[in-house]
Design brief:
- This protein has helices at about 40-50, 55-60, 65-75, 85-90, and strands at about 1-10, 15-20.
- It has one domain.
- The protein is an alpha+beta fold.
- The longest helix has 12 residues, at about 40-50.
- The protein contains 4 helices and 2 strands.
- Strands 1-2 form a two-stranded antiparallel sheet.
């Protein structure tokens, strides 16, 4: 599990989220997500919601400043080869 302290807490309704606790994604967490488009914010937010338990609506209120460290934390779960389209064609 990876914990990321947010630079700017997310205020959503009566909740304040100061840290995201992310577990390692499972194959099921990737359902409906195109790995080739993982750089799109929409895909990142959906995956982050699935592995952190925070709603998509709340995550959309997250500061842009927090996006880079969170993206890096998620990236460790994906070997660079798995995102290489040329390697995907070899299966």
């Amino acid at each position: 599990m990876q914990n990321i302290k947010l630079n700017s807490p997310i205020v959503f309704g009566s909740d304040t989220i100061e840290e995201l606790n992310m577990r390692e994604p499972t194959l099921g967490d990737l359902d409906g997500i195109n790995l080739e488009e993982m750089g799109k914010t929409e895909n990142l937010v959906v995956l982050l919601a699935r592995i952190s338990g925070v709603s998509v609506s709340a995550l959309k209120k997250m500061s842009l400043r927090d996006l880079i460290p969170i993206s890096k934390a998620i990236a460790v779960f994906f070997p660079s080869e798995s995102l290489d389209p040329e390697l995907q064609d070899q299966t």
